[in-house]
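User: Watch each token:
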Amino acid sequence: MRSTAVAPDAAEAAQGARTGARRRQLLTAAARLMAEHGSPNVSMQAVADEAGVSVGLIYRYFGGKQDLLQAVIVSVLESFAARVTEAIGDEPDPVRRIAAAFAGYCDVIADEREAALLAYRESKSLDPAGRHALMELEIQTAQPLVAAVTDAVDAGLIRAVNVPVFAYQLLMTAHSWALKHWYFGTRIAHADFVADHTALALSAVLRPETRDRYADLLGSLA
């Protein structure tokens, strides 16, 4: 008779997937409520109601509201790390890596806008250890973009810009989709937002002799 028992590895993988999905469900509910009402005004019961679970279930995943808030913010930074790396792939051209990294950051902001807003509004309410951990993680998530800008300067493809200033200017631009969504969201499609800001940023730094090489990224500014 054929056994119907599930292999231990498969069972563990299935359990891990269910746990991950439940955790994301809770983080999404918390981000939505906290972005709308502010973390101090959102109870764990309210998060449970929004997620459609018992409040006891939340405490199986998070120790308390500060733990939950920190997890929401960390989830955005972890998305940056994963999706920006994926967006860059094995692209050898540093200027195109800049464009790909910027697009990756913008896509995360668009998909996790409420959580991105929380990172700005509520991170100050975390304890010192939590704030330090977030700052370190944010620095790490910016490294692919910093590295691409550095390589583009070293290769003589763009002007000798202040690398951290230029890289973080792009990051702040990506975040503006969340911070100023009341304006941008009603006036421009997200894809056009990314393309237009990519063109503006690169147009300001590309060397004259390299502009033709990136005409597709510059659009009407080529």
Remarks:
- The chain has a mean pLDDT of 87.
- The chain is about 75% helix and 0% strand.
- The chain has one domain: 8-217.
- The domain at 8-217 is CATH 1.10.357.10 (Tetracycline Repressor; domain 2).
